[in-house]
Amino acid sequence: MSDSDDDPVVSESDRDWDEYDHGTRQFRRKRLGASGGEELGTSLYELDPGKRTWPRHYHAGNEEAIYAIGGELTLWLGTDDEESEHVLEPGDYVALPSGSDHAHEVAARGDETARFLVVSTMNEPDLSVLVERDAAMLFAGGAPGNYDDRYVSKTVDLDAEVEYWEE
Fold first, then answer.
1. What is the pLDDT of residue 6?
2. CA–CA separation, 163 vs 140, rounded Å?
3. CATH classification of 16-123, choosing from 2.60.120.10, 1.25.40.10, 3.40.50.300, 2.60.120.460?
4. How far apart are CA 106 and CA 46, in angstroms?
5. Do β-strands 104-109 and 93-96 pair in parallel, antiparallel, or remain unpaired?
């Protein structure tokens, strides 16, 4: 166990929780992949019963995966046109390649706090499409989950458009 950010061994107990509270979207996250990795990131999440994580979204430039550790989760995949619902229990794993077929949203089921890992490629720039809002988040300068280094971080309406050439 080490306190150094250069040490490739990271202990979950040495990381602090970041807490997110957006109404029913309340969760805790520990960034485990802040050390050692160059192209992968990993975060540990805790989600209380009845709460959800991020709005349904998909990435254009990154893959994600979810690995359930404790409790039960509901995972919604796809868009409203082609949605499927899955129950994830400890030991279940789901890969989420980029693209709209893998749009996803997660909620805790039952009476137990759910714990799960999210692993992601950390490519930037990226575009994250917020399916239910017809919006997209554009970011560059910091990979997914790395907000501090970004020089572009905007959420825009998918119908927003400006001319490329200014006349």
1. 64
2. 21
3. 2.60.120.10
4. 11
5. unpaired
CA distances from 47 to 44, 64, 101, 121 (A): 10, 18, 24, 22
- The model's pLDDT over 107-159, given as tens digits with 9 standing for 90+, comes to 999 999 999 999 999 888 889 999 989 999 988 887 666 667 788 888 999 99
Q: How far apart are the C-alpha atoms of 45 and 68, rounded to whole Å?
A: 10
What is the bridge-based pairing of β-strands 135-140 and 114-121? unpaired
Which residue ranges make up each domain of the chain?
16-123
Contacts for 14 with CB less than 8 Å, ≥ 6 apart: 1, 3
The verdict on whether omega for the bond into residue 125 sits within 30 degrees of 0, i.e. cis, is: yes
Calculate the CA 51 to chain-centre distance. 15
pLDDT single digits (tens) 59-76 = 999 999 999 999 999 999
Tokens of 64: 């994600």
Confidence of residue 2 (pLDDT cuts 50, 70, 90): very low
